[in-house]
Design a protein that fits this description.
The protein is built from eight helices and four strands. By secondary structure, the protein is mostly helical. It folds into two domains: 2-118, no CATH class; 126-200, Muramoyl-pentapeptide Carboxypeptidase, domain 1 (Orthogonal Bundle), CATH 1.10.101.
Length: 202
Amino acid sequence: MRIFRTTAAALLLGTGTFPANAATDSGDFAVYGWGARDCNAIVTILDGEQGAQARGQLAEWISGYISAQNRTQDGVYDLTPVKTHYPLVNLARNICTNNSDQLFEGVVSAMVESFSALRLPANSPIVSISRNGQSVSINEATMLRVQEFLISSDHLEDGSADGKFGPNTARAIESWQESAGLTPNGLPDMATLFLMARQMEQ
């Protein structure tokens, strides 16, 4: 068990304040399991012989963390638009490489907060979309928000936001990915949603 202070999480990723409903007046709270490990240990384990096994355990830990946050936060159905949390392990690892002394819990907290512009206030149907041999699952409400963002950034025509994935949306995502320095695959994958959410907050 480790003790973590919420103010430390606010320094990660350049994000703002974090909800403090699950901490003492001084911002302290107990952290257990993988969340109590520091980033240096997490990166070492992921790069070691037990990396594959640890990746699965970390994905489960992140899923449990997000589920608990979804339950306790008002007006939120799902804090993240990502439907499978294995990719979040990779993102957390990348963040950890630049924050080696931070607890893993703090990194996950900051990472989840970075998706705040795409959090779901209510349940929405999940659809699986595929393109060029790759596939992702996404809520229709998230797809609609992505389309609205693409329209506002001049990558998609006005009036075309309907929450449905099609050729025009794929081409618009691909165009935006190229402008953002991402590999253009035309899919709203984890990296794309992460960067879009951060731009939406600006």
